[in-house]
Amino acid sequence: MRRLPATLALLAASVAVGTALLASTPVTASLAAERVTLPPPTTTTTTATTTTATTTTATTTTTTTTPAPTTPAVPPEAVGQLVDKAVNSVVPGTTVGVLAVDTDSDQPVASYNAAEPMYTASVVKLLIAIDLLHSQNWQPDAATAARLEQMISYSDDDIANALWDQDGGNSIVTRTASLIGLTGTQPPDDPAQWGEATMSAQDVVTTYEFIQDEIPAPAQDVLTAGMSGAAATAADGFQQYFGIPDGLPGASWEIKQGWMLLMSTTVLDTTGMVGLGPTMPYAVAIMTELPAGTSWSAGTKAVSAGAAAIKAAFVR
Length: 316
Prior knowledge:
Layout: E1 28-31, E2 34-37, E3 44-48, E4 51-55, H1 76-90, E5 95-102, E6 107-112, E7 118-119, H2 125-135, H3 142-153, H4 157-167, H5 170-180, E8 198-199, H6 201-213, H7 217-228, H8 244-247, E9 252-261, E10 265-275, E11 282-291, H9 296-309
Antiparallel strand pairs: 1-2, 3-4, 5-6, 5-11, 7-8, 9-10, 10-11
C-alpha cells in the first residue's frame, strides 16, 4: 500500500523581648492562646557625674521556610507500563512505545520503550511540513500555509505525496532529523513509502518540543492550527479521533495521528500536545505496532485504552 497516514514551615517564632528603661511596664506575649508574663528587662547602668549610659540588648527573629519537594503522582515508568498493559489487554501481542513529557519542567511523566524506532505512518507529515516551512525561512506564503494546514488537519495523503516528491523524498526526513536533533528517526527503506519512515516516541516528543520552543510564530501557527483543528474524519475517510481524543474526553489537545496497514503489522499512532485544562503542557507519543490482521476497530480501541491510562501522569 502506498504512503498511508500516524510540587516547617518551622514556625520559628521567636518572641522579641522588648526592653525598656528602668520602670518599664511588664511585657506579655500571646502564643497559642496562652498569656505569659515576661520578667522585667535587664538594665545595666553606668553613672559618671550627671551622665547615665544605658545598654540594651535586642533579639532578632529569623523565620526559614523550606518548600516541600514535588514528585510525580506516579513514577513515569509505572505510567508507561500501565499504557502498555492497557493496550495489550485489548490486543495482545502489540508492541508499544510511550513517552509523555511535561514541557514546562522538561520532566518525563510517562515512559515505556521510548527509544525504540517504530513506524510513523502519517505522523511523518509533521516532518514534511517542518521541512517546507524551514525552506521558506519560517515565513510561509498564504498558499503554503493553507496547504500544510489541510495536510495536517485532514491527514491528506495527496498533499503529502506531492510534497514528498517535490522536496526530495527521503532527504526530507534526514534534513529534518538533523535540524531538530532526532537520533531515532530514519527514512523508509522504500523511498516511495513515506509512511514507513520510523521514529521513536522520544523523537516524536522532541519534535513537539521543537515546534513549541524553536519555530517562530508564523510557521508555528500553521502547525498548531492544523493539529488543533484535526478533523474527526480524515481525507481518506478514517475516523481519526482514536487514542488521545477518545481516551481523554474533555482534554485539550493538538494532535497528529497515524494509521497504516502492512503485511507484517497494523500501525496506529496517537501523538500531540495535551492538557486537562485550557493549557496543553504535555507532549505525548503513543506508538503501536499491532499484530498483522488486527482490525481497525480493535486497534483503535486498544490505543484509546492506552491513552486513557496515561491520564495517571497528568497532575494539573
